[in-house]
Amino acid sequence: MGGEKTVIICRCNDVTLDDVLTAIHEGIDDFELLRKYLKIGFGPCQGRSCIMIAARIFAKEKGLSIEDVLRNYRIRPPIIPVSSKYFIHGDNS
Amino acid sequence: MIGGGISGVFIAYELLNRGVRDITIVDSSYPGCGATFRNMGCFRSSFTSVEHVILMKKSIEEWIKLSRKLGFKLKQNGYLWVARRDETVETFKKLASFHNQYGVPSRVLEPSEVKSVEPKLNINIISGAMFDPTAGRMDILEVFTKLYLELRKRGVKFLNYTKAEKLISDSEKIRSVKTSRGILEADVFIVAAAEGSREILSSIGVRLPIDPMPRHPIVTEPYSEVIKPALIIDWDTPGSPHITQTEHGSLILARDIADSPGLPLNSHRFDAFHLVIKPLYELLPFLSLVNIERYWMGYYDMTPDHHPIYGPVEPYSNLYVATGFSGHGMMMAPATGIIIADWVLEGKPRISIANNLTLTRFKEGKLVKELAVVG
């Protein structure tokens, strides 16, 4: 132990293993609450690097399956970040 | 309590603080999963009805107290309503004078004065603005989670992923609620389940006039602080496009787009990107340089007069409702807590204007008028 503060789970937002474990121990009992509380997956990676790592830790801590943990996780459009400039000019097409 | 969103949680919090024990909150999914976590986290009292101004002023006072108690950040950095037309500035003058009458210090600004509120605004295309410095925002994701943990710690029982299917009543009282996990009995029942309240109350033949109208927020990658006010609203473009920046740094852009009530939450509209971004880019040209990261749908639970439905449900002596917030349920939640707890424990709300917002107003034709339904 002791290394938990230096293990990064979400690289976009600098969320550490210690942050995740502390939140779970504070009583967060749903992965969507955890994600929203710590902003895991809220950065430019859109969850691609962090969600599975965080979900696995949550599953292990709560004794749940990964499927159960991710039951409410949704991948939202766009699939990768898109520059706003493409939506400014022209019409809706 | 049926509904574990911000309204249900605040009602429970208020009841708990007044000594009520043995509170159970039933939610069909995880707590906060509906409009609570889908909203922008902004608040204001600069409305166009006396009811809203009074309830929101009380709510802001309570939000400030709670931020100190639970330790979360809340910023009063103001709402900036931008006018593209000269006649809108005249409307703003009337609105500001209405707000001032009720102690909300809104003021009308010349384009040159707008620069001090938001230096990035393109003042060449505006005629003026209205600024309410008492409006603001908070990280609703953090705030709600802290409230949830606080309630759990103090003994409130949350039954998540439990769908309330049917109320069971006799002629005077609700006796129990049938849920997907069995029947629950209680002395008092409170329905605060947003648009889901309709279905639950229809099980006892009560009709709630609520239409869930889809909304389409678009979210950027996080940036350091790029806009100063809590919310900037483009009043003169139809659907009032608006933009906020969250504590985490993402910009959230939205606009009311004509849509059909009750569309499922995955009926994405890809024209939303153009319709939302373009007018806001005209006001804030730096918006051509941001990356769009996420887009979701959510509902405004609209009532015919855009005000909530509060209070007892006749003829039952132990059934109360708090729903139909028409886009303002988060900001109004502390007042909702006080009002409904008053009704349950004292038989009437201490904020007497809440009496104008009961379900009976639709039958009696006593609707409240609200002109500014934005954020």
Defining traits:
heterodimer, A: 93 residues, mainly alpha, Arc Repressor Mutant, subunit A, two-stranded antiparallel sheet, elongated, B: 375 residues, FAD/NAD(P)-binding domain, 2 domains, eight-stranded mixed beta sheet, 10 helices, 21 strands
Write up what this structure looks like.
The complex is a heterodimer of chains A (93) and B (375). Chain A has 93 residues and is mostly helical. Chain A has helices at 17-26, 31-38, 51-62, 66-69; strands spanning 8-10, 15-16, 82-83. A two-stranded antiparallel sheet of chain A has the order 1-2. The termini of chain A are far apart. The model of chain A has no long low-confidence stretch (mean pLDDT 92). With 375 residues, chain B is an alpha+beta fold. Chain B folds into two domains: 6-59 and 140-210 and 304-364, FAD/NAD(P)-binding domain, CATH 3.50.50; 75-135 and 212-300, D-Amino Acid Oxidase, subunit A, domain 2 (D-Amino Acid Oxidase, Chain A, domain 2, 2-Layer Sandwich), CATH 3.30.9. Chain B has helices at 6-17, 35-38, 50-70, 86-101, 111-117, 140-153, 196-202, 271-283, 329-346, 360-364, and strands at residues 24-26, 42-43, 74-75, 79-83, 107-109, 128-132, 136-138, 157-159, 164-169, 174-179, 182-185, 189-191, 211-215, 218-222, 231-234, 242-245, 250-254, 291-295, 298-302, 309-312, 319-323. Chain B has an eight-stranded mixed beta sheet, with helices on both faces. Chain B has a three-stranded antiparallel beta sheet with strand order 2-7-3, covered by helices on one side. In chain B, helix 1 packs parallel to helix 9 and helix 3 crosses helix 9. The longest helix of chain B is centred in the first third of the chain and has 21 residues, at 50-70. Chain B is globular, with a radius of gyration of 21 Å. Chain A binds chain B through residues 12-13, 26-30, 32-33, 36-37, 39, 42-44, 46, 72, 74, 76-78, 81-85, 87-88, 90-92, and chain B through 29-33, 37, 141-142, 145, 148-149, 152-153, 160, 220-222, 248, 250, 268, 270-271, 273-275, 277-278, 281, 287-296.
